[in-house]
Amino acid sequence: MFKSGFVAVVGRTNVGKSTLINQLVGEKIAAVTSKTQTTRTAIRGIVNRENSQIIFIDTPGIHKPKTKLGETMIDTAFGSIGDVDLVLFVIEATSKEIGRGDARILEKIKESKKKTILVINKIDLVQKEELLKLIELYRREYDFTAVIPISAMKKQNTDIILNEIESHLKEGPAYYDIEEYTDQTLRQLVEETIREKALKLLDDEVPHGLYIEVTKMELRNTKQGEEIYDTDATIYCLRNSHKGIIIGKNGAMLKKIASYARQDLEKMLGTKINLKVWVKVKEDWQDSDSIVKKFKLQ
C-alpha cells in the first residue's frame, strides 16, 4: 500500500523550521539563516520513500506584522494548517512557557482539530528535566499525535519524524515525480539563494527590506560544449542608504553575495551559472499589491 500526504511545518520565527525541512528532504530547498523571518512564502519539499511520498510545506514564522507583506506571511502560515493531512508544530526546547506566538499557533491548531506532531527543536541546549517540564506543559494544551524532541542542526531524531508521519498518512498517489524534491521553479531557487546570502552577509536592518527578482535565466552551451545559465537578478531594497551597504566599497559586498550564491547554485543544479546582480531602490515594495501577491499561498 502506497501512502501520501501534505504536512505543514509551523512555528515562530527562527525556531529552525527551514533547517529541519532541508534535513528531512535531504536537499537545500529553503533559505536558512540566523535572521528572523527568513521564510516568506510556503515552500514545498518532497520526500520520496519506498512506500510513501510526504510533501512538506515550510511556512513563514509567526510574528507581529507591520506591512502587507507581513500580513500575507501570517495568512500563509495559518492558511496552510487547514489544507494539510498533518501538522508539524516546531517549538524551541529553551522555552520556559507558552509565549504569545506559540499560543496563537496552538489556537489555530485547536480550531482545525488536525493531527499534530509537536517537534521540540534544539534539545542540545537544555537539560532533560527542563525538556520534560516543557513536554508536560504542552501536553496539557492539546492531544498531540506524538511529541518528538530533536536537534535539527545535529540531525538528531529527524528520521523518527518521517516514520511517525508515514504511520498516520492515508493510502494515496504520488503527487510529484519521484525525482523531484521541491515544487519551486529554477528562478525561485535562484532568488531564494541570493536572498539567503544577502541575509547572512548584511547588517540586521537591511535584510528584511530585500526582495530579489530574477529577470533573465537562459540556458546555452559554451564554446567548449558546457551548459551554462545566463542569469540576471535584481535586489530591491527600501532605501538609498541600504543600496550603498548592499553594493559595498568598490562593489565588494555585492560581488561577495553574487559569488556565494553562484557557488551554491552550481552545486545545487550541477550546471555552470553566469550570474549578474544589480541593486535598485523600491521604497514601497513591502506594501505593493503586485509584489506581495507573489507571496500568497498558492
Quick take:
With 298 residues, the protein is of the alpha/beta class.
Can you characterise this structure?
It is a single chain. The chain has 298 residues and is of the alpha/beta class. It has nine helices and ten strands. It folds into two domains: 3-171, Rossmann fold, CATH 3.40.50.300; 186-295, GMP Synthetase, Chain A, domain 3, CATH 3.30.300. The strands form two sheets. Strands 1, 2, 3, 4, 5, 6 and 7 form a seven-stranded mixed beta sheet that branches. A hairpin with a 5-residue loop joins strand 8 and strand 9. Helix 6 (186-201) crosses helix 8 (252-269). The longest helix has 18 residues, at 252-269. It is globular.
Summarize the helices and strands and which ones pair or pack.
Blueprint: E1 3-11, H1 17-25, E2 43-48, E3 52-58, H2 68-81, E4 86-92, H3 100-112, E5 116-121, H4 128-139, E6 146-149, H5 158-168, E7 170-171, H6 186-201, E8 211-221, E9 227-237, H7 240-247, H8 252-269, E10 272-281, H9 289-292
Helix pairs in contact: 6-8
Distance between the termini: 29 Å
The oligomeric state is: single chain
Total discrete domains: 2
Biggest pleated-sheet summary: 7 strands, mixed
The CATH topology of the largest domain is given as: Rossmann fold
What fraction strand?
Answer: 15-25%
Could you give the count of β-strands? 10
CATH class division of the largest domain: Alpha Beta
Question: What low-confidence regions span 5 or more consecutive residues with pLDDT below 50?
Answer: 32-40
Can you give the mean pLDDT? 84
What is the CATH-assigned architecture of the largest domain? 3-Layer(aba) Sandwich
What would CATH call the homologous superfamily of the largest domain? P-loop containing nucleotide triphosphate hydrolases
Q: Strand-and-helix sequence, N→C? A: EHEEHEHEHEHEHEEHHEH
State the secondary-structure class: alpha/beta
Count, helices: 9
Please estimate the helix content.
25-40%
